[in-house]
Specification:
This protein has 233 residues and is α/β, with parallel strands linked by helices. The chain is built from 8 helices and 11 strands. Helix 3 packs across helix 4. The chain is globular and about 45 Å long. The termini are close together.
C-alpha cells in the first residue's frame, strides 16, 4: 500500500535529529508494523500535491501549529483537496490539525476551545466499537497538544471516542475518513519538549499537570493497529 502524507508543518530544527520530521514519525509508527507500506510526502504548505489523486492508495494529514482558520494561502487549497478526496471516497486519516481541517472542509467547524490547552497524556474513550477496533479496553491513553477543537462535526461524521475535555476526539466519515485529535505518532520525550518550549503560554498549572502525566505511556501499538486496519479495509 502506498500512503501519501500531507505535511502541514515542520518539526523545529533543533529537534529533528532526535525525533525526525512528522512524515518520519508516521513512517515509524506505521511502516515498522507493516513492511509493505510505502510513503510519499507532499508538503502542502508549498503547494505540493500529487499529479494524480490515485497515485497513492490512501492519504494521511499531519498535525500543525497553525489553526484551520488562519489566513494562510495553502489552507483553502488543502480544504478543496479534502473535498475531492471525500467525493472520490479515497482513504484519508487526519491527525490533530488534520482532524480539524477535515471537519472544517466538510461542513463542520474547528476553533479555540473554552477548555483551553490540552497537553501531555489524555484518556479518550470509545462509545462504540468500529469494525477496525480490537477486543481491548474502550479507554486508551494518547498524547495531545492542542488549543483548538472540533466544535461542530463534519456532515455525516460519527463521533467514536472522546472525553470530557475533548468530546469529539475520534471521528469517522463513511468508510473512508478517520480523524483523531490526539497524536498516535508522538513519543513522551517529544511531548515533553513541546511543553517545555510552550511553558509560558500554557501557564504553570497546565504545564506541571502535563509533565506529570508523562509517567504513563501512550497506547502506541493499539493506535497503529487501528489505523492500519482502517486503511486496509
Amino acid at each position: 500500500m502506498k500512503v501519501g502524507i500531507l505535511k502541514t508543518d515542520a518539526v523545529r530544527e533543533e529537534w529533528v535529529g532526535d525525533f525526525g520530521e512528522y512524515p518520519d514519525m508516521f513512517a515509524k509508527l506505521l511502516g515498522s508494523r507493516d513492511s509493505g507500506l510505502e510513503f510519499v510526502t507532499h508538503d502542502v504548505r508549498l503547494g505540493e500535491y500529487p499529479d494524480d489523486i490515485d497515485d497513492v492508495d490512501a492519504y494521511l494529514m499531519t498535525g500543525s501549529r497553525h489553526g484551520v482558520y488562519d489566513d494562510l494561502p495553502w489552507i483553502e487549497p488543502l480544504m478543496s483537496f479534502v473535498k475531492e478526496l471525500d467525493a472520490r471516497r479515497k482513504k484519508l486519516v487526519g491527525i490533530c490539525f488534520g482532524h480539524q481541517l477535515i471537519a472544517q472542509a466538510l461542513g463542520g467547524r474547528a476553533e479555540k476551545a473554552s477548555a483551553g490547552w490540552g497537553v501531555g497524556m489524555h484518556h479518550h474513550r470509545f462509545a462504540q466499537r468500529p469494525d477496525w477496533f480490537d477486543d481491548g479496553e474502550l479507554e486508551f491513553p494518547i498524547l495531545v497538544t492542542h488549543q483548538d477543537q472540533v466544535t461542530v462535526n463534519a456532515t455525516g461524521a460519527k463521533v467514536l471516542a472522546g472525553s470530557d475535555f475533548c468530546p469529539n476526539a475520534v471521528c469517522q466519515i463513511g468508510e473512508h475518513i478517520l480523524t483523531m485529535q490526539g497524536h498516535p505518532e508522538f513519543v513522551n520525550d517529544y511531548s515533553r519538549a513541546i511543553m517545555e518550549f510552550r511553558r509560558e503560554i500554557l501557564t504553570e498549572p497546565v504545564y506541571q499537570s502535563g509533565i506529570a502525566s508523562l509517567s504513563e505511556q501512550p497506547a502506541t501499538e493499539r493506535m497503529a493497529a487501528w489505523i492500519l486496519q482502517f486503511l486496509r479495509k
